[in-house]
Amino acid sequence: DPLQDSDLRNLAELGMGNGGSVMKVEHVPTGIIMAKKIVLIDAKPSVRKQILRELHIMHSCSSPYIVSSFGAYLAEPNICICMEFMNKGSFESVYKSLGGKNSRGDATPGPIPLGIVRQVAKRVLGGLVYLYEEMGVLHRDIKPSNILLNSQGQVKLCDFGVSGELENSVAKTFVGTSVYMSPERIQGSDYSVKSDVWSLGITLIELAHGCFPFSDTEVDFDDDETNGPGRMNGEMSLDSASLTPASAIPSAHHTRRKSRGVSLHGGVGTLSILELMHHIVREPPPLLITPLIPHSMEFAKPVTEGGAGVGQETAEEARVFVEKCLMKDPAERLSPRELLGTGWMRDGSANREAREGELDLRTWAGALP
Ligand code: ATP
Ligand code: MG
User: Is 141 a catalytic residue?
Assistant: First the structure.
């Protein structure tokens, strides 16, 4: 039977993005819990039908690294896309609450252990290889909020670019602009699988640092004060005055919930989305900073926090991996397949002890609130 709105019962709101919102729903006839994405579109009926046809590709996706789809339908003026519900949410929400609660009781961001980030990276690459090699599509929107987790420890990609028409018709102010965009894409060159790899590199740094990487605030792993004044939370203030109304601020990804308004320049100044784009194109790419462990403790340290005690070799492999994701020239940047063959992704390589001590994703995910 085709999916229809009247069969779905709203349970909770899961989140709001630029293009719409996502609800947790129950499909009453079957009792299946789903995530329903509601996208407000601005398109003619013929284009709407085209979008639905394109979204149908999602239906034929079958990969452990891709969120499965139950179908899409029109509910004027919206398009609704029903997908598998991932009960631990996105990696954006995961890391943004890893720092515990502050004195006001708000969740604060914190770094995800490197051993976990490694396993996430492997699965995202698996998803990219599947989309590219089996489905012939690029993801186009890799970022922490589009990488989902469930309590079985499964990691799956959502919101990939199956529908060019949908992309064109989403009623948002700043179409296709994201702070995860590669230098070549900012400069208007062709999009390739290498552009997805750049976005993955930025995403991995964000998860491992517990903050968005384009900042001049230092990453401090020993800091117990999770909400100290210099702590970045991956959000930035934008100087609205420096932008034209047409390039309205709200859709620059990190500005949506800028309640804490940490500026990119550590409080000294603010960086507009345009300045950030210039920065990405002109400046060296960001680096992964891994916690330093005294050499003598390399293997001795018990791995109590999901691979927090990774050895130096693993940390070095991780830095090299991220560097290969963030080569500014896409020709030098590795492809997802090539990245899967690098040291950091191999289970039995250099740091066997560190690898074996790694918490598995299921245990880690299960322990999350
Ligand atoms: P943007 O609009 O900039 O892409 P976004 O990815 O956060 O940002 P949405 O795609 O609308 O926006 O998603 C909103 C939130 O809904 C996500 O951050 C995620 O936490 C949650 N979400 C999306 N899909 C699912 C799902 N299948 N299962 C559980 N939660 C989901
Ligand atoms: Mg999304």
Answer: yes
